[in-house]
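To: structure desk
From: M.T.
Subject: fold request, one chain
Message: Could you run this one when you get a chance? Sequence is below, nothing fancy, just the single chain.
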Amino acid sequence: MRRSLLTLSWILLRPILFRLTAERAHRIIMGTLGRSPRFHAAFIRMLGGPPSSPGPVQVGPLTFASPIGLAAGLDKDGEAIPVWPALGFGFVEVGTVTALAQAGNPTPRLFRLVSEGALINRMGFNNEGSERLAARTKALRKAGRWPSVPVGANLGKSKLTPLEDATEDYLQSVERLKSSVDYFTVNVSSPNTPGLRSLQQADALNELLGAVIPAAEGLPVFVKFSPDLEDEALAEAVEIAIQTGCTGIIATNTTRTRPGTTGRLNEDGGMSGAPLWPLSRDRIQKILDAACGRIPVIGAGGIRSAAQAQELLDAGCVAVQLYSGLIFEGPGLVHQITDELRSPVTQSQT
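Reply: Done. Structure tokens follow.
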């Protein structure tokens, strides 16, 4: 019964939010949660009850409270960090954050495809910058309000930074955040920053990860790949992640292709949500096959049901991440998935 209260709340709220533009609705929600995250976390727990879990998952030195995590993009500036574990997430990723604060691309830049259960975004890493995120995360730790689940920072390149200086740009964010977050994800796969995806190429990726991992000083470092990489490039990127000592791989980011019927073929940007699932599922399998169990893989891209999450866990992923599914299924989705997952989860990798 208590679980259904979260679902009922969303059923009542969704028609109101969906009358607004996607970005306006997002800012209203994030602004509300950010103003009093502890209150909203308590309220969510009252509605949804305690988070369920098929068991903790060990990934390198990190212990995820459950295999269901929040993907980067929803809480770009870490405004509502205490809220997400209350929804049932076993780990949380904030960002994407860049060394320089930036406004992102011109609006409109975020579009709902309601009938398809999809989003198209060309946000362009709009965020307050890693210095501001560091101040916020340090304040949470100092106040004793840091969550009991791991919280990572997804790092991107500042738009104004030339590609040849990308490594230093990432390192600046690492230096600012390494004392106040639990892990890093190196984002080289967003389609909305010019040239960023070229950092997935072998030489550039090797240089970047080879610098970030030692700079993190023992903090786990993941790397996030695009679903649009060809098989050979994807396999090569997996090998570099392993050779440089990455803790794990997150796959996949949004796609520039338009799988299925999107209704907005002319909108530029990365697509996420339900139409991404078949493509993402295929690329995740390619990564798992290339990795052969040598590095943990976290699956993401179009997941909106327990069956899909279970399929990835059974295939060999250690965990999965959600974002777009929450927009269409509502905040009760996390409880729904964790309640239905088989227990215990057997995937655990160091």
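Reply (cont.): The two ends are 38 Å apart (CA to CA). Let me know if you need anything else for the meeting.
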